[in-house]
Amino acid sequence: MCAVCVFCVSLYSRYPFTSPGLGNMASTDNVYFILTKKDEWIAFPKAGSIFFMPENKFISEMKKSSPPLKLRMRLMKHHSGREYDLETNDMEQLCVEEVELLQALPDDAERLRCFRERHDLQAAMQLVIGTEVTVEEAGKKFRGVIQYTGPITSASISCPIPGSFFGIELQGPDRGKGHCDGTYRNVRYFTCDKNCGIFAPFNRVSSLLPSVQEPSFQSERLELGDRVTYFIDDKCRHGMVLDLLEIGGRCFVQISTVSNIPFFNSKIISNQHHQMLSSSCKFVQQLSVAHTLQQPFGHLLYLLSVYIHNRIFGVYVFFFLDQTDHSTAELQTVPPMSTEQVEQLLTGRMKGIQGHCNSCYMDAALFSLFSCSSVLDSMLFKSTPPQDAPIQRTLLNDIVNPLRSNGFVEGKHIMKLRQQLQKHGYSQSFTTDEKDPEEFLSVIMHHILALDPLLKLSAAGKVQESYCYQIFLDQNHRLVLPTVQQLLEHSFHSAGLKLAEVPSCLILQMPRFGKKFKMFDKIIPSLELDVTDLLSEGPQQCMVCGTLAQIECIDCFKDPLFSPTGFKVFCRNCSEQVHSHPQRLSHKPESLEIPKGYVERKNPHTMIRDKMELFAVLCIETSHYVSFVKYGPNTEDWIFFDSMADRQGETDGFNIPEVHPCPEVGEYLKMSPSELAHQAPRDMKGVAKRLFCDAYMCLYQSTTMCLYR
């Protein structure tokens, strides 16, 4: 897209119009922009700087007979009234919420990075008071709760919008590691104990349970799938953006004109608001068929040329000869590989998914999820908006089906998926940089395919939703060689969480200090995960006598007398006996919620327990991801996958993926914790060391619940 059109589109389409001004800019007297590039020979201003100008002056400039190539703007900075003449091509517009968050960042380069990548910025807009978060301070991460959001400095003429910070009260073992009690420069913004508070900008704050609310379109540029309003012969038309492209150096927007597209909350790309836009845009008052294209489905597409001050803005208007929805064409279904198919088709060199250019995080995640499991197949077939259908088709037809039918996926198909994701605007580095598997999964499951959240967590009576769960531990856990069962229970215990329901798929991130620093030398992947005691509702068994539990004691959880796994729940009689001991008189047991109408079985020991089975493990070593997959019912039915196991040639060569059996993994998983503790990693057989020492993410499925979702 040409630079002028980028600027014009960003001005006229990023926000719905609530006045002759710029949408939610109507609440202020200014319009705001970020400098995205600058002349490399000029030291200042720097890219990433924020500028503003009065709204009425901006409107006046835009009403002139020809659009301005430069605008005179003031640098947003305290004690600076300096103005600059800036190229319109070098700027992008900001909404007030973006300005507030970005202004809290002191570094221009970091500000620009956050604006371009947008992930942290969008996540920060969902943070509210009461959200449990981690905050980075001096290279360390602490847990806390947001108690304040807003500025901690005053506005001024040269800086009308001061930066918005998050005031966080540290929790649990991190209390006392802050630097304030909720005050900043003698002004109180919230109340907490001494050294239990931290003020931090958004790029150092992360929610423990990522919100799954859809990002507001008001913070986006014109994107694929946007509902838009445009004008032909002064008549208002509505449609959907299908593509943004450049043809012959001209910028075009493909718009579907299907009549049943809803137009509420649409973005206006050519406007009837004469006070601002019509005077600055001259349109050809007739349709001119300037170009025709032949689509794969045989539909002719006609080009409507729209001129903005003698610059082609261009709108592709789709006139379909019929209204058949080809995105709902019959989809081929290939089931996951059976045990026999894995042994015949999937093992060997040039098998699995071929890696290319830092794609190992995506290769390992897709191989783990789809090679031998169908737990998330619903995302391949669910109804998808037209703008997202190409990504779904690539995932199904070019990756999952070839993997399951032939045992091999070429690297070009993964690159195609990465290009499609990058085109959607969630990150400008999907095709080049290494990402985390959870970032990729969040984008594909949540933002693209809108899969229902996999995980529903109950905390203090409120249900929060997410796709993955990051295991956090307090500093007093006393675990040395933990199982995943123990890690999950300790994390839920310290955070006061329960499962609102049994998930069909549970994606667990192992505790780490970043990708490079492991919290444990070894972690034992539990083959079964018993989540019965982790449910917020449902009958539970007394851990002593096996009858219906009515009491839970959080204080007993870490009592060394009891088993190292399982929440400590008792019937009333056993609870009284347990807590009559002098060492437990200070405990505070609480009553459990028992489902209404529940009738205890005659034989309480036959109570059905909710369990999930391990089906894959992603591991990381020196920033390279690999995966282990359980492909059959036998103990030794494990395979190891590396998308870049070997390479043919140098810079113009290619990676050789490999899948091979690793039955030794099953042998070690049968060992007791004490036996495993005596196994030196360097002496472990085959690739078993990587499973136990480098586990990054464990994937569990419920064979019962996946039938219903």
From TrEMBL:
Q: What quaternary arrangement does the UniProt entry report?
A: Interacts (via CAP-Gly domain) with IKBKG/NEMO (via proline-rich C-terminal region). Interacts with TRAF2 and TRIP. Interacts with PLK1, DVL1, DVL3, MAVS, TBK1, IKKE and RIGI. Interacts (via CAP-Gly domain) with microtubules. Interacts with HDAC6 and BCL3. Interacts with MAP3K7. Identified in a complex with TRAF6 and SQSTM1. Interacts with OPTN and SQSTM1. Interacts with CEP350. Interacts with RNF31; the interaction is indirect and is mediated via SPATA2.
Give the main EC class.
Answer: hydrolase
- A family per Pfam: CAP_GLY
Instruction: Write the protein's name.
Output: Ubiquitin carboxyl-terminal hydrolase CYLD
GO terms (BP aspect): innate immune response; protein deubiquitination; proteolysis; Wnt signaling pathway
According to its UniProt record, the EC number is 3.4.19.12
* Membrane topology qualifier: Peripheral membrane protein
Q: Where is the USP domain?
A: 351-703
The Swiss-Prot or TrEMBL record describes its family as follows: Belongs to the peptidase C19 family.
InterPro entries noted in UniProt: CAP-Gly_dom_sf (IPR036859), CAP-Gly_domain (IPR000938), Papain-like_cys_pep_sf (IPR038765), Peptidase_C19_UCH (IPR001394), USP (IPR028889), USP_CS (IPR018200)
Q: Which organism is it from?
A: Oreochromis niloticus (Nile tilapia)
